[in-house]
Amino acid sequence: MAVSHGEIAFISELAEQPQTWLGKTIRVVGTLRDYDVATDTARLEHQGQLTVDTRLLGDFGYPIGSTLLVIGEVDQSCSTDSGGAVPLTLRARIARAMDGLDMGLYRSTVDIKRKFEAQW
């Protein structure tokens, strides 16, 4: 069975249409805001928030404030948010430091890539 490379997604897109992302393999970039050692969960932010399940990553040694690229599968969280909605969780299988990445340029590049791919 082949392992998917992960569709590029933005955290804001996950929040806008959560049901379309369930079960998909994605890659997101965000800033690490906190990490809970007891539950092996991290929180990424970039125009929204995303909970990341880091159990498959082993030693999670990224400092708070780092920019990370995370690849994994989207699942629903067991808890609900204040509005009663069930937030998404990314079950990470790969994480990589991306400190120094220009997020504006990254977004522009992804938009150009998507427009190009939509033509074919």
What does this structure look like?
With 120 residues, the chain is an alpha/beta fold. The protein has one domain (7-118): Nucleic acid-binding proteins (OB fold (Dihydrolipoamide Acetyltransferase, E2P)). Helices cover 22% and strands 37% of the residues. It has helices at 11-16, 18-21, 103-118, and strands at residues 7-8, 25-36, 41-45, 49-53, 67-76, 88-97. A five-stranded mixed barrel has the order 2-3-4-6-5. A hairpin with a 4-residue loop joins strand 2 (25-36) and strand 3 (41-45). The chain starts with 6 loop residues before the first strand and ends with a helix.
Give the CATH topology: OB fold (Dihydrolipoamide Acetyltransferase, E2P)
Instruction: Give start-end ranges of low-pLDDT stretches.
Output: none
The gross shape turns out to be globular
CATH class: Mainly Beta
Count of discrete alpha- or pi-helical segments spanning 4 or more residues: 3
CATH superfamily: Nucleic acid-binding proteins
Please summarize the sheet with the most strands.
Answer: 5 strands, mixed, barrel
Question: Structurally, how many domains make up the residues?
Answer: 1
Task: Look at the structure and give the mean pLDDT.
Answer: 89
**Class from secondary-structure proportions:** alpha/beta
* Spatial strand sequence of the major β-sheet: 2-3-4-6-5
Range of helix content: 10-25%
GO molecular function: single-stranded DNA binding; telomerase inhibitor activity; telomeric DNA binding
InterPro entries: NA-bd_OB-fold, Ten1_animal_plant
GO biological process, one term: negative regulation of telomere maintenance via telomerase
